[in-house]
Specification:
about 300 residues; alpha/beta; eight-stranded mixed beta sheet; 8 strands; about 15% strand; globular
């Protein structure tokens, strides 16, 4: 169920996909994403958890009015959302920028977070490890004040909302033809709607620049990663073009208690590419999560080997 009051200034739109009991899963999209990014995964989880997805300010159906769309601002927004809707502590499921924001919230306010599921999270990586020259050049252009705003408006005007969506999906490793037609059409409608909302481009670029700055100041971010005490499941596609697999492997080596899984042939948004596989790994991890009910009715399970590594 969509939050019908979310269109008002200052409100955060969210979707309650249903489910009852514990745990509560809060799904956090990445840069340029929205609640629609979770529509294939969320229905697979509602038998095991109560599932919510929010639109961060300036994305999806959450207006950017009167609030910054920076990483720091979004951590605060997520914290308020968890307190108001999530009955903390919750399990945060974050993709890309949403993974970074979830890590920072878990480090800053551990009492709100029962566990973290990170799907190709934004992680520090040297430029030479990035596999997409297009992504690098776009990141540099977006960082320039005034230039980024013009680029986004001109691109959308030149190629239209459908081609804009297709280009974004392909950059993330997703074949648009592989997605349900209804999901594609609603995503196109959302892109078209956002082009008419004042401040959406500014919010995207504000978030993009803040994300780049956070990753550049990798010492502070890595300190936050080290301070996370909640259990973590890290899933990362080995065909990732935006956050190289080497970055995920480096974090996994430094955090051996995290459960790390590499997804073969998968790109930046595994919840759209292989939702069934993501759901399988997430449910298995939930069974080992302290304080979680036994939603699958399978009785007690042995604790997971904290150093376990899997490839799928």
């Amino acid at each position: 169920m969509s939050n019908s009051a979310a269109g008002a200034p200052g409100r955060v739109h969210h979707v309650d996909f249903g489910g009852t009991g514990r745990p509560v899963l809060v799904l956090v999209h990445g840069l340029g994403g929205s609640h629609l990014n979770w529509e294939l995964l969320a229905p697979l989880l509602i038998a095991d958890a109560h599932v919510l997805a929010l639109d961060l300010p300036g994305f999806g159906l959450s207006p950017p009015v009167g609030r910054p769309s920076t990483v720091r601002g979004n951590v605060d927004v997520l914290a308020r959302f968890v307190r108001e809707h999530g009955a903390p502590p919750v399990v945060l499921v974050g993709n890309s920028m949403g993974g970074l924001i979830s890590i920072l919230l878990a480090a800053r306010m551990p009492s709100l977070v029962q566990g973290l599921v990170l799907l190709d999270p934004a992680l520090p990586a040297p430029l030479h490890a990035l596999r997409s020259p297009v992504a690098i050049s776009r990141m540099v252009a977006y960082a320039l004040p005034g230039v980024g705003e013009r680029l986004r408006k001109n691109l959308r005007r030149r190629i239209g909302p459908r081609a804009t969506l297709d280009a974004t999906l392909r950059l993330c490793g997703v074949d648009p033809a592989s997605l349900p037609d209804d999901l594609v059409q609603r995503s196109v409608a959302l892109v078209e709607r956002q082009s008419d909302v004042a401040g959406m481009d500014r919010a995207f670029l504000s978030a993009s620049r803040s994300l780049a700055w956070t990753l550049a100041r990798c010492g502070a971010y890595e300190a936050a990663i080290r301070s996370v005490t909640a259990p973590v499941l890290l899933l990362h596609g080995d065909r990732e073009r935006l956050v190289p697999i080497e970055a995920a492997r480096a974090v996994a080596r430094r955090r051996p208690r995290w459960r790390y899984v590499e997804l073969n042939g998968v790109g930046h948004v595994p919840q759209l590419q292989v939702p069934d596989l993501v759901a399988d790994h997430l449910r298995a991890w939930l069974r080992d999560l302290p304080g979680t009910d036994d939603p699958l009715g399978q009785g007690p399970t042995m604790p997971a080997d904290p150093g376990r590594r899997r490839r799928s």
